[in-house]
Amino acid sequence: MKGGTAILRKVLTESGWVQGIPAADPRVTAFKGIPFAASAAGENRWRAPQPAPPWDGIRKCFEFGPIAMQEIPGGNPNDIYTREWHVDGTVPMSEDCLQLNIWTNAKSADEKLPVMIWIYGGGLMVGYPSEMEMDGERIARRGVILVSINYRVNVFGFLAHPALTAEAPDAPTNFGHLDQQAGIRWVKRNIAAFGGDPDNITIFGQSAGGGSCEIQLCSPQNAGLFRRAVIHSGGGLLPPSSLSPRLSEAEKQGERLFKALGVKTLEEARRVDAQTLWNVAVASGSFEWGTVIGDAFLPDTPANIIGRGEENDADLVIGNTGDEFLFSPSVDSEEALEEYARRKFADCADEYLAIVRKGAKSPDDIKKNATYNNFEMGNILWLDLNARKPKHTMYFYRFDPDIPGWDDPGAFHSSDLWFAFETLAKCWRPFTGKHYDLARQMCNYWTNFARSGDPNGDDADGTPMEKWEPYTADTRKVMLFSDRPRLQTAEQSEFFRFLQQSCESGRISFRSLNAFNSEKELR
Q1: In whole angstroms, how far apart are CA 232 and each of 61, 204, 416?
Q2: What is the C-alpha to C-alpha distance for residues 103 and 114, in angstroms, rounded to an integer?
Q3: Is the confidence at residue 3, as pLDDT, over 60?
């Protein structure tokens, strides 16, 4: 009897042999929980990721590894993400979490398939690569290897302290981002054995994962590490919020944490039980954790680095959803509106007021006129900067289909994940044929871009998809993903143009444009 088609199920990595498991489509192999670094517990807590120790025999990579220390998933039944995908409150959690997952349909190690590396979101506070919407099978079926990386979050990933700076001045903080970087480097060294091309890597992520992609793009340590990036709702050129302190400020918070823990030395802090540390540093609500600015990994803000043209070379797809993070002034009277305008817009206040009052017959009309999509603003700032000084080929998208469900959520933050991974069948929402068509085509665009830098190509039936043109100063094209992909010109409202032009000219504070610095404005 003749043997069947060869399928790559066992692979030799730098640390030892791994064995994968057939995906739902047995032509795809999933390798889950491959260590790319040593455990981050004990003496490795708050250290840059260390090399994974080797193992003997064949490691069975059939299950996802533990998620990073964080809030138990699914704890809030009223939270939209609990309804979407945080459905398992018993998922294992540990500081020994630096593992990655690979989906490949390669039959041998010499195929040189393009590679996409996924970095999940969650505000750098929560999240994990085993969330069900991030399954890599549909991407792998298109001949693109999908890798998803786990990384440390919250206090475990972003503590800074003078003792850490003294111990490791080249890597004193941003351990979560260093985990992402270590995972990408591991892929660069090992992915050829899984049938991948180490010289054709695209990183992509959403929300804090999208912002992390932008940060990886801006790190001077990452030159040549990847070729492309897809950034979902990552903030664009928005300035940092209060969650992105300078190193000296972050060190002071670290000192406050040590006092709250009742410890005096770094050694004592590393011996604190992980759950106790999380309770004091995160659950108490007394501290904020996020990217730290000013170390060797990230010497300046991404906005400043990109503004100077110092980011690494990579082709880019960036975009946002239609209904995420819409901000408007939290005012209930003309007097409050005047005070808000003078405080936030200073010398531009009269122009601001004239625009938001134009045609308004009620306070609700004014709020509607003054509403803007925070992430789209940051994306447009980046796109127009690049259009004036071309460095990257950039493609822009806006995801804005109707999202069905009893909660009538609109195109909410993260809703595009079901579509980019083409995993709608896992969702509880009553998606119909048009949604499945849109998801198939989005996944096509993403994988085409990873393959060659050009998102265009044919759909599954051989018909050409809507042609997606880059964003340039002359065309300002945006791909609108609504009932179907439609290429449009990125027209903006008068108010949106006012904000952009005033910010770029320096008439209003660039930092004030980031509405995350004023959470009370969220509506």
Answers
A1: 29, 8, 8
A2: 12
A3: no
Please name which of 132, 129, 145, 143 lies closest in space to residue 30, comparing C-alpha atoms: 145
Instruction: Report the half-sphere exposure of 116 (CA within 13 A, side-chain side).
Output: 34
Cβ-based neighbours of 370, under 8 Å, separated by 6 or more: 328, 329, 356, 495
Q: What is the pLDDT of residues 327-357, one digit of tens each?
A: 888 887 888 888 888 888 888 888 889 988 8
CA distance 305 to 14: 34
Q: Are 313 and 217 in contact (CB under 8 A)?
A: no
Q: Give the pLDDT of residue 514.
A: 60
Query: 113-119 and 145-149: which strand pairing?
Result: parallel
> Rounded to an integer, what distance in angstroms lies between the CA atom of residue 502 and that of residue 271?
50
State which amino acid sits at residue 275: Q
Name beta bridge partners: 315.
Answer: 228
Contact criterion met (CB below 8 Å) for 412 and 323: yes
Q: State yes or no: pLDDT of 306 exceeds 60.
A: yes
Instruction: Name the pLDDT band for 513 (thresholds 50, 70, 90).
Output: low
In this prediction, residues 111-139 reach a mean pLDDT of 97
Task: Count Cβ atoms within 10 A of the Cβ of residue 264 and give its class: 0-12 exposed, 13-18 middle, 19 or more buried.
Answer: exposed
CA–CA gap between residue 381 and residue 211 (Å, rounded): 15
Q: At 226, give phi and psi (nearest 5°).
A: -145, 160
Q: What share of the chain is helix, strand, coil (3-state, %, to 5)?
A: 35, 15, 45
* Pairing relationship of beta strands 394-399 and 477-481 according to DSSP bridges: parallel
Strand 113-119 and strand 196-206: the pairing is: parallel
> How far is residue 287's CA from residue 276's CA, in Å, rounded to a whole number?
14
Rounded-to-10 torsion of CA 423, 234, 221, 178: -60
The C-alpha angle 493, 497, 500, rounded to 5 degrees, equals 140
Q: How far is CA 408 from CA 60, 82, 235, 355, in A?
A: 42, 16, 25, 30
Asked if 453 contacts 446 with a C-beta cutoff of 8 angstroms, the reply is: no
Closest by alpha carbon to 419, among 405, 402, 406, 407? 402
Question: How do residues 155-180 score in pLDDT, each as one tens digit?
Answer: 999 999 999 999 999 999 999 999 99
**Catalytic residue ranges:** 207
Q: What is the CA radius of gyration of the chain?
A: 23
* Rounded Cα–Cα distance for residues 12 and 26 (Å): 20
Mean pLDDT, rounded, of the chain: 92
